[in-house]
Amino acid sequence: MDPLNLVPYLPRAEWSLGPGDQGWLAMLGQVLKEYQTCTRRRSLLRARVMDFVTSTAILPLLLGCVGVCSLLKLLQWLRTRACVRNAVVVVTGATSGLGRECARVFHAAGAKLVLCGRNAKALEELTRELAASRATKVQTHKPYTVTFDLTDPGAIVGAAAEILQCFGYVDVLINNAGISYRGTIVDTSLDVDRRVMETNYFGPVALTKALLSSMIRRRQGHVVAISSIQGKISVPFRSAYAASKHATQAFFDCLRAEVEQHDIEVTVVSPGYIQTSLSLNAVTADGSKYGVMDETTAQGRSPSQVARDVLAAVGKKKKDVVLADVVPSLAVYLRTLAPRLFFSLMASRARKEQKPKRC
Fold first, then answer.
1. Phi-psi region at 272: left, alpha or beta (left = phi > 0; alpha = psi -120 to 50)
2. What is the rounded CA–CA span in Å between residue 320 and residue 270?
3. CA–CA separation, 327 vs 306, rounded Å?
4. Distance between terminal CA atoms of the chain?
5. Is 17 a residue whose pLDDT tops 90?
6. Residues 6 or more apart from 359 whose CB is under 8 A from it?
7. Residue 102 has pLDDT above 90, yes or no
8. Cβ atoms within 10 A of the Cβ of 109, count?
9. Is 273 designated active site?
10. Distances (CA, A) of 64 to 55, 69, 71, 72, 109
């Protein structure tokens, strides 16, 4: 027989109050009464708070605070755009990615652009696009273009002279051009390390030095270096890239200290992952193209947002800007405050990945 069928025949337990249960029931009743009293008090307090907030004295004050904050943000935004209006802005690596978005953002703000890159055709296409855009009420200017390769030291001096011929001076130099890398240190040839350093470090340094004298003579100028969060922390399988960005951070930090006496600003911008083709065009250990869109890159920030952040950094004359999510930002501080833990986590990540994935 199914045991469940026996349930109706089982004896039923009857419960009755014992001598000691009366005290417990009285205590329970007191607790419930106090709970109901507290609930009523909370409701009354909430009602009084709402009456106070919505009173004629507080509500206008709150609305006024919101209005003042909004007005300050608007004024800050207008000031940011005004600071580059009619300013001569040079953007390297302007044909794609973040450089292209910087060209659009600074053009819309009224800057006089000098667009630099290796692909003359792509530069001309961007120039036509910007000239045809009418998305702003600010007076815009037709950009100039200068074609050269940052990895060619001999071409940089001539390119700097050509840049100065456009308007006679440079107000803002945005060193944006760069190349990424994926590979293990043991398999990477020294030529690949040199190639990455030439593009990410020596090229921007050479162009900055070539234009710096004219800024010093005018006692006016702003140098922006687009670095990376990997210029502050090192990630496995990015050795050449991280090394070039660490060098960039150090050089422009030194430059900032040296040219402050000449009233020249230096800003280092360190973004996290950006939705660009940087990983697609990255070089590998043997010098070939990586050709893969990393998941982290695909899920990164939009280049237009980062470009607006660069514009804001220039307008506010910021020294050092980190544009990364919470985890990479925390890693920067973790490396300083708990280096042993940080390096242990990096080693664990390296063991987990073993080799950079091509998928």
1. beta
2. 8
3. 18
4. 61
5. no
6. 292
7. yes
8. 23
9. no
10. 14, 9, 10, 12, 30
Give me the catalytic one of 144, 181, 241, 273.
Answer: 241
Quote the pLDDT of residue 13.
Answer: 47
Q: Are 85 and 109 in contact (CB under 8 A)?
A: yes
Q: Nearest 5°: phi and psi at 90?
A: -100, 130
Query: Rounded to whole angstroms, how far apart are CA atoms 247 and 122?
Result: 29
Both structure tokens of 308: 């607006």
**317-339 pLDDT tens trace:** 999 999 987 777 677 767 777 77
* Cα–Cα dist 70/324, whole Å: 25
Contacts of 239 (CB under 8 A, 6+ apart): 181, 183, 185, 188, 193
Alpha carbons 323 and 250: distance in angstroms, whole number: 18
Q: How many CB atoms lie within 10 A of CB 150?
A: 27
| Structure tokens, 126 | 């961007």
Instruction: Give the whole-number percent of the chain exceeding pLDDT 90.
Output: 59
> What's the number of CA atoms in the CB half-sphere (13 Å) around residue 351?
6
User: In terms of DSSP bridges, do strands 172-175 and 88-91 run parallel, antiparallel, or are they unpaired?
Assistant: parallel
Give per-residue pLDDT as tens, 153-198. 999 999 999 999 999 999 999 999 999 999 999 999 999 999 999 9
What is the rounded average pLDDT for all residues in the chain? 84
196 phi and psi angles, rounded to 5 deg? -65, -40
Give pTM, 2 decimals: 0.75
Beta-sheet pairing, 172-175 with 112-117: unpaired
Taking the alpha carbons of 163, 166, 171, 172 in that order, is the dihedral positive or negative?
A: negative
With beta carbons less than 8 A apart as the criterion, state whether 85 and 314 touch: no
Average confidence (pLDDT) over 58-66: 61
Answer whether residue 214 shows pLDDT above 90: yes
* Residue 154 identity: G
| Dihedral over Cα of 58, 64, 68, 69: its sign | positive
Calpha distance 140→131 (Å, rounded): 8
Which tokens belong to 43?
A: 């409701």
* CA dist., res. 92 & res. 150, Å (int): 9
